[in-house]
Amino acid sequence: MKKIIITIGREFGSGGREFGQRLAEAMQIAYYDREIITEIAKRTSMAERYIRQIVERRPIHPFPLTIGQTFCLSAHPVQEQALSIYRAQSRILEEMARKSDCVIVGRCADYILQDRNPFRIFIYADMKSKLERCRNRANPKEKQLSDKDLTRQIQSVDRHRADYYEFYTGQSWGNRLNYDLCLNTSRIPMDEIVLAVAGLFP
Amino acid sequence: MKKIIITIGREFGSGGREFGQRLAEAMQIAYYDREIITEIAKRTSMAERYIRQIVERRPIHPFPLTIGQTFCLSAHPVQEQALSIYRAQSRILEEMARKSDCVIVGRCADYILQDRNPFRIFIYADMKSKLERCRNRANPKEKQLSDKDLTRQIQSVDRHRADYYEFYTGQSWGNRLNYDLCLNTSRIPMDEIVLAVAGLFP
Predict the structure, then answer these.
(1) Are residues A180 and B199, on separate chains, in Cβ contact within 8 Å?
(2) How many beta carbons lie within 10 A of that of residue B103, not counting itself?
(3) pLDDT (tens digit, 9 = 90+) per residue, B34-55?
(4) Residues β-bridged to residue B120
(5) Which carries the bigger pLDDT value, residue B66 or residue A151?
(6) What pTM did the predictor assign?
(7) In the predicted model, is pLDDT for residue A26 greater than 90?
(8) Are A162 and A43 in contact (CB under 8 A)?
């Protein structure tokens, strides 16, 4: 039987991670998210925290990596590290997808695993609902942020995610044409979304 | 109990109408699509075919109707007719939504009924899958069209839908932020989509 591979792109604060975890639970299949960074750390002997910083940083090159075959890599050390992290990540995702049915959150998995025909979901929400979700899970320091500052922070994380995705895939992040399903979590209770999506894989 | 109003925007050839019909059937609620044009014809004493031509024509004004309160209507007769059709349509949609739970396809219903908090779905598909769907339902003349010509025709209908929607709503057609759910029908069988979405309204 063909393997089920579900990839999830998500806006910051939209509940994409919660959705992914609960979907994997409901379908009783593997779930990969932070595990990927941990695995990269093991293989590259870089610290997890450092890897996280690199993959969350805006790429330095002005053009997507996918443009041009004669693309010449600069010797910028951070850029080289970012690329070696991306390569390690691609290998790890391939291994995970080969192993068993799974849900993978983020990490350009929809693009990296495209030959395996993943089911590509994008999770998003209205800003009001994202603010509320972020407030609920915020640490004491973040709780003191004004709505305006929190909005800016959310937008900034999403801009970085978009840049990262576009740099490595040459595709536009969150553009519906790159996904099979785009879900707005602002109004539908999470329980119902999970049930409905799990129902697509009888 | 709160009324269920489901609005469906759709790309040409994506199966949006079939989805709407089958969803309404599965949920045993009313379905409105071409009925709206028939009703407008009754009330405005214009011919259905003429109304269809008007609503499928690209709006003449260069700015969305929603921009500016001091917008001054031109005396262009087709434009005036288009506006009176839009007004009749708005009234009819309001009445339909008041009457019972329903599924409404197209006609800017998501925007017109926004105060009633409709569940807004957008149905789309890859071009390959839209071409296939169009071929299957084509009349003998259309069947002779090359893929290139059929693609052009599909793109042209969608451009008109986008212009129409943008003109009357000031919003961007197909932009995920205006919808609760965007569904790509290229890979999920229609039966499963209908079941999953109906499941969101237990």
Answers:
(1) no
(2) 27
(3) 888 888 888 887 888 888 877 7
(4) B7
(5) A151
(6) 0.87
(7) yes
(8) no
CB-facing half-sphere around the CA of A53: CA atoms within 13 A: 8
Q: What is the pLDDT of residues A121-130, one digit of tens each?
A: 999 999 999 9
Among the listed residues B37, B16, B1, B69, the one whose alpha carbon sits nearest the alpha carbon of residue B179: B16
Residue A35 to residue A26: CA distance in whole angstroms: 19
Please check whether residue B105 is in contact with residue B121, taking contact to mean a CB–CB distance below 8 angstroms.
Answer: no
Q: Is B45 exposed, middle or buried (0-12, 13-18, 19+ CB in 10 A)?
A: exposed
Interchain contact A195–B (C-beta under 8 A): yes
- Shortest Cα–Cα distance, B191 to chain A (Å): 10
Answer whether A90's CB lies under 8 Å from A5's CB: no
Which residue is associated with the tokens 């509940």? A15
The answer for residues whose C-beta is within 8 angstroms of residue A136's C-beta and 6 or more apart is none
Neighbours of A87 (CB within 10 A): 12
